[in-house]
């Protein structure tokens, strides 16, 4: 539950807090409601964190640090790590991989075995793939100073980069020591789905392509996994 409430607080802080004066003072009623929800989520996360083991605390602090430097200016020539377009998506993917793989493993008192690290790498690659459509979608809105991957290498090369990530994502599956047919089939289904995704969009996307179709892929993955078991 800590990652759940912590994610709400951190996501809203990054999404809305950095636009507020001193990250606290807001005038917009919409943002005030978000601020209240975020504060409650942060309080609940802090309370539940009291019961966590030390190694989980270390993992959380590392991810919180990445989240903070992602949103708050820490470098002399950049507003924050979020402003470093080429680095941004890798920071996001790293935090998501740590939150959805490493922390649950530590919380379940499971040793960080080889298979756990392989799964973390796959989750990192998976999030990178899902961020590609967002990077291309925002191409017409992003400042040229951001130097995002599509700005540097173009839409076509960015999509090729996404395809390469999809292939690596699936190939890494076979590096696991404890591998079963179900996982191979589920990730094969996901592999083809992600490939289709990479070839089904461009600079001009539909209104809900990224915000609905792309963001629903993790949910579809979960449903397929549950049905397969």
What keywords describe this structure?
single chain, 229 residues
Q: How many domains make up the 3D coordinates?
A: 2
Instruction: Write down the overall mean pLDDT.
Output: 80
Strand/helix succession: HHHHHHHHH
Largest sheet: none
Could you give the distance between the termini?
24 Å
Helical content class: 55-70%
What count of helical segments does DSSP give? 9
The total beta strand count reads 0
Q: From the helix content, strand content and strand pairing, which structural class follows?
A: mainly alpha
Bulk shape = globular
C-alpha-based Rg, rounded: 19 Å
Strand content: under 5%
Low-confidence spans: none
Would you write up a description of this structure?
It is a single chain. It is globular, with a radius of gyration of 19 Å. It is mostly helical and 229 residues long. α3 packs antiparallel against α4 and α7 runs antiparallel to α9. The chain contains nine helices and no strands. The chain has two domains: 51 residues; 177 residues, no CATH class. The longest helix has 24 residues. The mean pLDDT is 80.
Topology of helices and strands:
Layout: H1 2-15, H2 29-49, H3 54-71, H4 85-107, H5 114-137, H6 149-171, H7 181-198, H8 209-214, H9 217-228
Helix pairs in contact: 1-2, 3-4, 4-5, 5-6, 6-7, 7-9
Task: Give me a quick take on this structure.
The chain is an all-alpha fold and 229 residues long. It is built from nine helices and no strands. Helix content is 69%, strand content 0%.
